[in-house]
Every structure is written in C-alpha cells, then in structure tokens.
Amino acid sequence: MERISGHKNTLGTLSLLSFVSHVIYFFRGRQKALHVSFILLNALLLIKCQSTTSLVLTFSLFGFILFILLFKRMQSIALRGFFLSTSCLFVLLGLVFALTYGDAIAAEFGKTTTLTGRTEIWEGIAGAIQSHYWFGHGYGSFWAARPSIYSGGIRFDLTSSHSGFRDLWIDVGLTGLLLTVTLVITTLFKLRIGKSDVHTWLIAVVFFLFIILNNITDSRFLNSLSIYWVIFMMIVIKVQEQHKLAVAEKQNSPALSASLIH
Questions:
Q1: Confidence class for position 260, pLDDT limits 50, 70, 90
Q2: pLDDT surpasses 80 at 17
Q3: How far apart are CA 94 and CA 108, in angstroms?
C-alpha cells in the first residue's frame, strides 16, 4: 500500500477524505450501495495503513458529520439547545479523559504520548524558530540543508517538523504564521450554509477542518503534497466570494424594498 501512496500517513489522509466524502453523500440519499462500497473500502485502508492520526481524525470528523446532520433535522429550538449542550459536555469529558489517561491509552495501542517522536522534534527545532523568530528562514531554506537532531540517543534526519504550523513559523516566521491563523479563523466564521445544500456545505467544512487539524501533527501546508494547500486555498477563496455575495445581497435588499415602496 505504501508503494502506491508513498507513505502510510499519505494513504491514511487520502482514505480519510474519501471516507468522509462518501459518508456525507450516503446521507444525501443517492446511489447508497456505491457509497457503502467505498466507505467499507476506505475503512479497510484506514485500518491497514496503521496511521493513528488518520484514524483519530476519521472518528472525530465522522462524529462532526453526524452531529450536523442530526442538528439540522431538529425543528425545536429547545431540543437543539439540549442536543448542543449535551454534545459539548461529552466532548469536554472525552478531552478530560484523554488528557488524564493519555499515557495508559497510548500504551494499550503500542504508542507513546511523544506522538511517534514528534514532541522530540518540536523541542529540537525550537532554537531554529527562535533564531529567525519574526520572518523565518525563507521558504524551504531551513529544510534544504537536511538538518538532524538527537533526542534520547536517536538521530532524527528532518525534512519537516511534522507540524504544518511549525513549518510555517520556520519558513515565514511568526508574521506569516499569524497571517495564516487569521485567514483560518476568518474563513471558519464565514463558513455559513447560505444557499448551498447542507451536504455540499459539509464537504467544504469537513475538508477545511481536516487540513487545519492534520497540520497540528503533520505537515500539510506548503512542503507536502500540493493538493492539500490547493484544497485549503480553494475553500478560502470560495468562502470569501460567497461572503461578499451575501453582504451585497443584504445591502441591496433595503434599497430594493425602498424603491418598490416609492
């Protein structure tokens, strides 16, 4: 499988995106047998690739999809409020449980809370970040030298930090990182359903959330497969366009109403 995808994490992320897409369109109610087949195939690939990050993100995004679809079906405001508060409570309890028993849970699956050496890498590159804090080393300059760090007697030969946000910090500094984070936050606030159906909206939101969450523990921005950055920018541009159209419609509506009255 890795010969096809290049790496287990690449296979995991591509299978994840295919899995959630077919789940969303299964609930849309068309060609259900086809979508079930792809859901099962991608579930098998996710299990076989043994990418913990992809599995955790798949469960998280699958839960998010179910939450949105159930929430949209509820007509009662009181029921929606109860469902929202209960869901938030379960998520909070899940986070507390994971933080409290993280080491024991990881050990059960043969993992550690170092995230397969990622935390050691992040500690090792802290000096590189500090030395070019505001504007970075320049795109790809730091990684071009194939830097190495030593932690716990293990040598890490690096081509990235395994964190897209840290890679941005090294490449373009805190200035570039803050601009990207601002872009992410503003896009999330503008991601409204509008005139699009809930399933199309869900595809955009889930893909966007995947890219943001995956960049916490993997590099999916600039120095990885370009498709992730392309998807990220396509969603940002499309959301900005829809937001401008929505604002223009709101501004034109009062003027149109006034002209009809007169």
A1: very low
A2: yes
A3: 17
b/e burial code for range 183-194 (CB count within 10 A of at least 16 → b): ebeebeebbeee
Q: Residue 151: what are its φ and ψ, rounded to 5°?
A: -150, 125
pTM comes to 0.83
Question: In the prediction, which pLDDT does 207 show?
Answer: 93
Q: Within its chain, how far is the Cα of 224 from the centroid?
A: 15
Which residue shows structure tokens 């690449």?
10
Helix (H) or strand (E) holding 150: strand 148-151
User: What is the C-alpha to C-alpha distance for residues 52 and 37, in angstroms, rounded to an integer?
Assistant: 23
Please check whether residue 29 is in contact with residue 67, taking contact to mean a CB–CB distance below 8 angstroms. Answer: no
Please name which of 5, 14, 9 lies closest in space to residue 231, comparing C-alpha atoms: 14
Is the pLDDT at 213 greater than 80? The verdict is: yes
User: Angle CA(21)–CA(23)–CA(26) in degrees, nearest 5?
Assistant: 110
Instruction: Could you list the beta-strand ranges (E) of the chain.
Output: 148-151, 154-157
Q: What is the rounded distance in angstroms from the CA atom of residue 15 to the CA atom of residue 62? A: 13
**Counting beta carbons within 10 angstroms of the beta carbon of residue 248, is it exposed (0 to 12), middle (13 to 18) or buried (19 or more)?**
exposed
CA proximity to 63, closest of 28, 91, 22, 86: 91
What's the pLDDT tens digit per position in 51-104?
888 899 999 999 999 999 999 889 889 999 999 999 999 999 988 888 787 777
As a whole number of angstroms, the distance between CA 191 and CA 141 comes to 34
